[in-house]
């Protein structure tokens, strides 16, 4: 009898600790170049223009170019629709209910459930995934008493439009060498979809509440990590995702610290920092490809570097404290999130309508 295998949204081929022992294909090399140049250009442009929230301009290109190997009208529509929805939610809902915990929590539950439902169905996975990351970051920033919601919203719009333009430019300069195969269509029982949406929505909402109640304003990486490990949408994938996220964060923080020691007093020179970011992202993108292009350790290291460089590295501030704090907070966040995922998994599996059924060769026929 064949051993049941769980079909996850991402095809896994290795990890940072045990990467696949193979050379990159020509298409994967081109994708690495797109991710590295896209993130570095987004970061550099935001700093040259003096725009706030450099994390948006650095991380968004990583998401669009890293998670999706192609660019077409459907991908662009998803990305722009996500930017419009998240912008409207933060501008209207946060503006109306930001100081009212109960209405705000209800609104967050509804938008989270919608995003995870899009991810569970598969066809609009990018819309839901980027929406969850963008919404988490914006709600985090909006919790600052000194934050300007209008500035936050406009920065998100600018970053989204710039990301689309950068993605087009990168695909024009570094096009794929050969046509890519279409991703397989994932079929799921209705109980699995309900299980995934309820589990991910509940855990993401708990994360939002905890970060708001404890006023953890300096823990952006920890909050984003608590969302990223939910991307597999189930307990079986979340455990591996949590481990990879912790490994990726550790690597990203250590590389960030290494660059800080290398640059020393030259960290205020933009071109030096941009080159350091490009080298780091190019390295992490290679591991990202070896892992199969999913939200693994390589991708976690990339986003960690994006947050550190985009938000915390300035001529007046170095990365030492922030990098050390990032790893500690992310480790705690990932562990607690994983406990919540397991608890919800056990609870939902007690009911037939929300029981997660592991696909087997027999029931896939």
From TrEMBL:
UniProt entry keywords in alphabetical sequence: Membrane, Transmembrane, Transmembrane helix
Xref: InterPro entries: DUF2955 (IPR022604), Memb_transporter_dom (IPR049453), UCP029594 (IPR016926)
Pfam families tied to this protein: DUF2955, FUSC_2
Integral membrane bound transporter domain boundaries: 207-339
UniProt main location, coarse: membrane
Membrane topology, from the record: Multi-pass membrane protein
TM segment ranges: 51-72, 79-96, 102-118, 125-147, 153-174, 195-214, 220-236, 243-262, 268-285, 297-313, 325-345
Subcellular location as annotated: Membrane
Annotated protein name in UniProt: DUF2955 domain-containing protein
Organism, scientific name: Paraglaciecola chathamensis
């Amino acid at each position: 009898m064949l051993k049941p295998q769980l079909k996850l949204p991402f095809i896994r081929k290795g990890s940072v600790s045990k990467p696949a022992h193979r050379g990159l294909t020509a298409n994967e090399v081109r994708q690495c170049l797109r991710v590295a140049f896209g993130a570095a250009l987004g970061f550099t442009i935001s700093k040259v223009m003096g725009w706030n929230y450099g994390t948006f301009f650095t991380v968004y290109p990583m998401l669009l170019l890293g998670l999706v190997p192609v660019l077409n009208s459907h991908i662009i529509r998803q990305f722009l629709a996500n930017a419009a929805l998240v912008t409207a939610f933060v501008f209207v809902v946060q503006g109306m209910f930001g100081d009212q915990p109960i209405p705000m929590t209800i609104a967050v539950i509804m938008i989270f459930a919608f995003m995870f439902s899009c991810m569970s169905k598969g066809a609009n996975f990018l819309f839901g995934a980027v929406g969850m990351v963008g919404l988490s970051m914006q709600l985090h920033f909006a919790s600052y008493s000194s934050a300007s919601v209008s500035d936050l919203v406009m920065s998100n719009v600018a970053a989204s439009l710039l990301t689309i333009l950068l993605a087009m430019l990168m695909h024009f300069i570094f096009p794929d060498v050969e046509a890519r195969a279409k991703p397989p269509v994932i079929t799921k029982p209705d109980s699995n979809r309900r299980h995934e949406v309820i589990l991910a929505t509940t855990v993401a909402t708990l994360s939002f509440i905890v970060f708001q109640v404890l006023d953890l304003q300096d823990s952006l990486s920890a909050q984003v990590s608590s969302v990223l490990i939910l991307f597999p949408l189930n307990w079986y994938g979340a455990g591996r995702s949590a481990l990879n996220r912790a490994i990726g964060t550790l690597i990203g923080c250590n590389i960030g610290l290494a660059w800080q020691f290398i640059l020393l007093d030259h960290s205020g020179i933009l071109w030096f920092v941009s080159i350091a970011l490009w080298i780091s992202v190019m390295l992490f993108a290679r591991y990202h490809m070896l892992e199969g292009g999913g939200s693994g350790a390589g991708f976690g290291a990339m986003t960690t570097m994006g947050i550190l460089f985009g938000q915390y590295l300035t001529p007046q501030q170095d990365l030492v404290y922030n990098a050390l704090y990032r790893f500690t907070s992310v480790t705690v966040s990932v562990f607690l999130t994983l406990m919540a995922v397991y608890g919800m998994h056990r609870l939902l599996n007690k009911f037939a309508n929300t029981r997660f059924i592991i696909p087997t060769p027999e029931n896939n026929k």
